[in-house]
Fold:
Amino acid sequence: MNLYKIPFNKPCLAGNEIRYMLQAMEAGPISGDGPFTKDCHTLLEQSLGVFKALLTTSCTHALEMAALLLEVQPGDEVIVPSFTFVSTINAFVLRGARPVFADIRTDTLNLDETAIEALITRHTRAIVPVHYAGVGCEMDSIVDIAGRHRVAIVEDNAHGLFGKYRGQYLGTFGTFATQSFHETKNFTCGEGGALLINDPEYVERAEIIREKGTNRSRFFRGHVDKYTWVDLGSSYLPSDILAAFLYAQLEAREQIQHKRHKIWQYYYDNLKDWAIEHDVRLPHVPEYCEQTYHMFYLLMPGLEQRQSLIAHLRACGILSVFHYLPLHLSHMGRQFGGKAGDCPVTENMSDRLLRLPFYNDLTVDDQTYIVEAICQFRGKI
Ligand SMILES: *Cc1c(COP(=O)(O)O)cnc(C)c1O
Structure:
């Protein structure tokens, strides 16, 4: 039973999920790379204009594939915002890389592009920008810096599918980009992800790594007469049943994004006066970024006010959550030398950020109730 009248997240069906899953089961092969997987690949490639899209079992696994493809080795360094999910960097640490934590911008909470260059050394192999809340990072600068230093870009685009930066789709700037279809993301199949490949040179090896280190994809296309172990690899293909579920969601992308836009705008319009009055900041979206309406957050004046608003909303039956404990201060981060004060903006924002309930089927009635509860908050603001 849900203890909350309004949960933080709820998986929502777009309409055709069950029909497509049945279709997948009736048609036969339900392992990876079946017809629905191919449909998802084509949809992602054509709608974004990426060279190749490959579904994976998670965004975490897509990041692991990127690290394998870049041949990240012990001694290499990878630049990553401290304000992100663990997988963004863990995938590279698994290959022996050392995380180099960068701070974030105060406005969008994205990787601070002006902090990157000072962190580059001769060991730097990759920069991993995260398009936080589906608002694009400053890709003009990041692409320029990466190009000058011959460092790869891997976009962690878990929040940013179908978002744009200066008219260009997020996920098309890096050598690779990774997507998540976890149930908390805009489009979901429960657990799932995708690797987007913008450099054709990596496609064949990506297919091999994804197929347990075998050339099975080439075998299925009739390019070789038997398949065998040719490289490193693992099992990164989702079942076609999950791809069927996902295809129903991706196909409904316009309706889903329309719903999320309305939810985001309702929060924004109905909280902006309250926010000004109480010294609370709402999300900032530069005019050249088309965001994805992945989340709605409040930046409270401080930790105490944030914690008491979470408690107040909980008492009203509303689950709100904080986001991202700084990675450089985590148990693992400290083992790589992270210490308080390294990323002051991250540390500050992490104390103040509060995410409001956000899912496709959140009703206006529920949102009205949430906004009223916030406006009644008499905590230490
Ligand atoms: C959700 C998320 C991930 C991990 O996605 P999974 O599909 O659960 O592996 C990685 N990075 C960011 C920024 C995320 O929000």
About this structure: The pocket of pyridoxal-5'-phosphate is lined by residues 58-60, 84-85, 87-88, 130, 156, 158-159, 180, 182, 193 (CB under 6 Å). The chain has two domains: 17-251, 253-380.
